[in-house]
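Standup notes
- HV: blocked on the assembly model, inputs below
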Amino acid sequence: MSRLVNGVKSFSTAASSLLADASAAAARSVRQPSSFQVFRDVPELRQLRRKLIQNDRTMGFVPTMGALHEGHLSLIREAARENTDVFVSIYVNPTQFGVNEDLSSYPRTWDSDVEKLEKLNEELSSLGACTGQITAIFAPTSKVMYPTLPPSSEIDGHGSFVTITPLARKLEGVSRPVFFRGVTTICMKLFNVTTPDRVYFGQKDVQQTVIIKRMVKDFLIDTEVRIVPTTREADGLALSSRNVYLGARRRAVGLTLYQALSAAAEAYKAGKASRDDILGAARSVAERVLSEQQALSPSERALYEVDYISLADPESLEELDLVDFKKGAVLSTAFKMAPLEETNPGEDCGLGDGKVPVRLIDNMILQPQS
Amino acid sequence: MSRLVNGVKSFSTAASSLLADASAAAARSVRQPSSFQVFRDVPELRQLRRKLIQNDRTMGFVPTMGALHEGHLSLIREAARENTDVFVSIYVNPTQFGVNEDLSSYPRTWDSDVEKLEKLNEELSSLGACTGQITAIFAPTSKVMYPTLPPSSEIDGHGSFVTITPLARKLEGVSRPVFFRGVTTICMKLFNVTTPDRVYFGQKDVQQTVIIKRMVKDFLIDTEVRIVPTTREADGLALSSRNVYLGARRRAVGLTLYQALSAAAEAYKAGKASRDDILGAARSVAERVLSEQQALSPSERALYEVDYISLADPESLEELDLVDFKKGAVLSTAFKMAPLEETNPGEDCGLGDGKVPVRLIDNMILQPQS
């Protein structure tokens, strides 16, 4: 295993340009990881999948954009618990990034991703027959995933797309109009390639979970969608590939998303049902922390903008004035963490030295209550 | 077999309303046809499909909107030649009809469709082991195919869609902006339900063949697209479900599409490569026939409008000024046959008494030549 990781390390630094694929390293490496196969193209993966079906094995699929963290691993663990085999895809999908969005700054970490998956397979194999294992990594090139036109990042650009509206226009879709078109398009392709018995998505991206469930239903896709609870740090911060850009100062302030949502969830649990009561609790946390930060000097503070705080129906994502206790609701929020204005010598400013703006999202499900 | 056909006949006349499905009759019928099963929903069909896969049988899929004619049968014969099993879907897809288009006037002919398929299976079984047979008819309800939102027929309406642009905007897409969105959306669903080894489409709808091939490629769908030559009457008229609306007078004049295309194809074969030379030959036929008709009295003539005559690249469908002899081209045309202005006692005016406007399309492939 370590030989593979070392073997690809020298190449991966060159793979950071916009066009190079995160996983291009895999193509150059002669060695395969010891416990799973890496596939760069479709036909061989289909062959393996066919063999699994013929042998009555079940397969759970976990699509990722790499930069794997404990959140992804929790999806894979759940997939291994429910299936004999797990396929993981690692592909940074260009069509879900807008023209001015952070495709180029999205972390590409092939070496450590493979290492984490190898370690996880060791952990899974130690559990014996009661759990499955990762069998295949699918790390395609963009030419494989977008074989004809270069994919458009313009909302009215040409291409072959799956669109799910109005769901894709709400919440995250307001500031990121092409995002969910990119997600549904790439997921349809990945599902067609892997034909999974079950697919696994994290609760963290709640709108994505709602849209994928809708896509599977509307397009009669023969798979089950499993949603796995958000993995959080001890203090509550939701894990995200983007957290590596935060650094210590913005990380501390970034916890405000969780605190604001917790305050709102508390209000709901205490019997509040109106939008003003529930979202008011969240907003007052967000506003208080921001004023505290603004009172600090530029070398001490971390500023942010609240993009939205939403209280919505769990299936349609329509904004609610009043929560129906029988149905519950989705509470969700997005903050834009601004770049640090001034940094201090020796300060942990995260990948990109605190200059990268970081958009954080989080959510909580308000469960039905009587 | 005849009992089934009779058994459903009494119901099918009531099924002509916009909302009733063409195949609703199948749901009421207790009997199954003798040589294939009719499926109204997905799970049982998937079970059959799984059994076929386990037994190493291959399946060819022929999607139709019913109103079967010899053209459809030629698709099924080809599918039976190449596969052990053939699935045929019969579903009049609402999303490929525009708001003001002819969904309500599209023929619904369940009884005779089933009869034709039964007869075809007899023919196929007489050929013995060298050909497959129709195993399943999939005749779903709209609730099965569109389980959440009622499908929109507005170009900017909401829903879950597959879009393939710019291909879908050209030729037929100009006058029918939602048409190919509807076709690709329903075909993606049908392919997900049936997971065919091969799918069969007629050359008659040339733009559809180009778009489906593109969809299968771009979405990495695990199937092969087969295109079957256009079936024509002895005089050259391309078979179409809509021909039943023509009646004798408009049918005779409708042959002009074929004659115009033939004149253009002759010019190409004679060595012409320029747009003006090739399309000029087609246009002069279309114009001559129209003037001849205009000179006749309203009770004798059939008028039409030429929607387009196109000379386009075989893959991108971009209009060509000059044909590259190495690549060839697609020659295609659409005519709108106007309703008859005056009819005569006892005249064969077709279904709808000559009052239904009929849009006819036809095409020829200009093969590469040296």
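- HV (later): unblocked. The two ends of chain A are 53 Å apart (CA to CA). Chain A has two domains: 2-228, 241-366.
- Next: hand off to the docking folks.
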